[in-house]
């Protein structure tokens, strides 16, 4: 998958793609359906037209974090779906100032040269969100690209949306989130140094920062982990603690993963951690012995959960 960030500098070899437009936060089943429509619509490379940062982050930079995934995690997921060309355009003052017509002309037609575009029925675009899916179809007829308008995909229990997935994660229901995502909810990042306490407790953990991401319910989870690079790259099972570590008066929330049956140095590698089951909230314990006994019990339970998958 090739990634382009400047719509004014897309080479001729990357033009002509068939692409859905959207934020694709989570790359959930609804997103996958529009991606499949774009894949099937034209005999052309499969593209994605998306933005980074998310437009809501641009317009409301101080709002609480809501993203399900970082742009890097989104790119990894899209590459796995067979996307050829990712147009990850910066959402900035220049982009926000495009009227619907200017966006269609300068970005879609001239910049990316898309042959086919797929958007959902509720799609809005351009300055002030004034552009609609029907307007885009009109621009396409004029400017030379086809537009498919997709109906919204619903799951068994209702509409599939990033909002509903966030709500499931906030409740500590990662399986409900996974049913809407079509895959486990994963948190990805680079393994950073913590306070080096874990190894003394017998539970060294691979820590990642969760800044900028929607926080799932804090607590202990059974997890599937993938170390993405470095000498220990591979798949692991584990137990992870998401939160602020009240036992040690932590403040900065992070995700700390203990990998089963592993020892080695993981600092600097990237890890992708899939939340499978919520086991319990974070707690404080009267002694380190009691804390370690609880972590032993957590790991036994997590092994059972993961063995049953
Ligand atoms: C299975 C598991 C359960 C945990 N449960 C708690 C908990 O209930 N309360 C808490 O404060 N920290 C909990 N933690 C986080 C540990 O406090 C943290 O990983 C440890 O202090 C290591 O910190 P460090 O990586 O900064 O050295 C848990 C960690 C694991 C792996
Ligand atoms: N089974 C394991 N699971 C997770 N990390 C491990 C494991 N074994 C060794 N490590 C290494 O130990 C480091 C964590 O040790 P820890 O004492 O918790 O320090 P930190 O506070 O920096 O997280 C990890 O980043 C990794 O390099």
From TrEMBL:
<keyword id="KW-0547">Nucleotide-binding</keyword>
<keyword id="KW-0288">FMN</keyword>
<keyword id="KW-0274">FAD</keyword>
<comment type="similarity">
    <text>Belongs to the ribF family.</text>
</comment>
<keyword id="KW-0808">Transferase</keyword>
<dbReference type="InterPro" id="IPR014729">
    <property type="entry name" value="Rossmann-like_a/b/a_fold"/>
</dbReference>
<keyword id="KW-0418">Kinase</keyword>
<dbReference type="Pfam" id="PF06574">
    <property type="entry name" value="FAD_syn"/>
</dbReference>
<feature type="domain" description="Riboflavin kinase">
    <location>
        <begin position="180"/>
        <end position="307"/>
    </location>
</feature>
<dbReference type="GO" id="GO:0006747">
    <property type="term" value="P:FAD biosynthetic process"/>
</dbReference>
<keyword id="KW-0511">Multifunctional enzyme</keyword>
<protein>
    <recommendedName>
        <fullName>Riboflavin biosynthesis protein</fullName>
        <ecNumber>2.7.1.26</ecNumber>
        <ecNumber>2.7.7.2</ecNumber>
    </recommendedName>
</protein>
<dbReference type="InterPro" id="IPR002606">
    <property type="entry name" value="Riboflavin_kinase_bac"/>
</dbReference>
<dbReference type="InterPro" id="IPR015864">
    <property type="entry name" value="FAD_synthase"/>
</dbReference>
<dbReference type="InterPro" id="IPR023465">
    <property type="entry name" value="Riboflavin_kinase_dom_sf"/>
</dbReference>
<comment type="pathway">
    <text>Cofactor biosynthesis; FMN biosynthesis; FMN from riboflavin (ATP route): step 1/1.</text>
</comment>
<dbReference type="GO" id="GO:0009398">
    <property type="term" value="P:FMN biosynthetic process"/>
</dbReference>
<dbReference type="Pfam" id="PF01687">
    <property type="entry name" value="Flavokinase"/>
</dbReference>
<keyword id="KW-0067">ATP-binding</keyword>
<dbReference type="GO" id="GO:0005524">
    <property type="term" value="F:ATP binding"/>
</dbReference>
<keyword id="KW-0548">Nucleotidyltransferase</keyword>
<comment type="pathway">
    <text>Cofactor biosynthesis; FAD biosynthesis; FAD from FMN: step 1/1.</text>
</comment>
<dbReference type="GO" id="GO:0009231">
    <property type="term" value="P:riboflavin biosynthetic process"/>
</dbReference>
<comment type="function">
    <text>Catalyzes the phosphorylation of riboflavin to FMN followed by the adenylation of FMN to FAD.</text>
</comment>
<dbReference type="InterPro" id="IPR015865">
    <property type="entry name" value="Riboflavin_kinase_bac/euk"/>
</dbReference>
<keyword id="KW-0285">Flavoprotein</keyword>
<dbReference type="GO" id="GO:0008531">
    <property type="term" value="F:riboflavin kinase activity"/>
</dbReference>
<dbReference type="GO" id="GO:0003919">
    <property type="term" value="F:FMN adenylyltransferase activity"/>
</dbReference>
<dbReference type="InterPro" id="IPR023468">
    <property type="entry name" value="Riboflavin_kinase"/>
</dbReference>
């Amino acid at each position: 998958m090739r990634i382009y960030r400047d719509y004014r500098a897309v080479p001729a070899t990357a033009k002509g793609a068939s692409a859905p437009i959207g934020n694709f936060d989570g790359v959930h089943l609804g997103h996958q359906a529009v991606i499949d429509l774009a894949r099937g619509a034209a005999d052309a490379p499969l593209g994605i037209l998306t933005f980074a940062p998310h437009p809501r982050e641009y317009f409301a930079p101080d709002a609480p974090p809501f993203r399900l995934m970082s742009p890097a995690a989104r790119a990894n997921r899209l590459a796995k779906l067979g996307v050829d060309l990712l147009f990850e355009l910066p959402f900035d003052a220049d982009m926000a100032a495009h009227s619907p017509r200017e966006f269609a002309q300068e970005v879609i037609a001239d910049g990316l040269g898309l042959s086919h575009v797929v958007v959902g029925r509720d799609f809005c675009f351009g300055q002030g969100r004034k552009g609609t899916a029907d307007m885009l179809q009109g621009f396409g007829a004029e400017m030379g690209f086809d537009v498919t308008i997709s109906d919204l995909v619903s799951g068994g229990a209702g509409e599939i949306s990033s909002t509903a997935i966030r709500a499931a994660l906030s409740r500590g229901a990662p399986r409900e989130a996974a049913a809407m995502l079509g895959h486990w909810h994963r948190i990805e990042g680079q393994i950073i140094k913590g306070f080096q306490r874990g190894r003394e407790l017998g539970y060294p953990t691979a820590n990642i920062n969760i800044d900028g991401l929607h926080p799932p319910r804090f607590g202990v989870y059974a997890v599937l982990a993938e170390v993405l690079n470095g000498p220990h790259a591979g798949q692991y099972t584990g137990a992870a603690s998401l939160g602020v570590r009240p036992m040690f008066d932590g403040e900065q929330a992070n995700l700390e993963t203990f990998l089963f049956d592993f020892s080695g140095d993981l600092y600097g590698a990237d890890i992708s951690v899939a939340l499978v089951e919520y086991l319990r909230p974070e707690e404080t314990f009267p002694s380190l012995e009691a804390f370690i006994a609880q972590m032993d019990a957590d790991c036994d339970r997590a092994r059972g959960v993961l063995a049953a998958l």
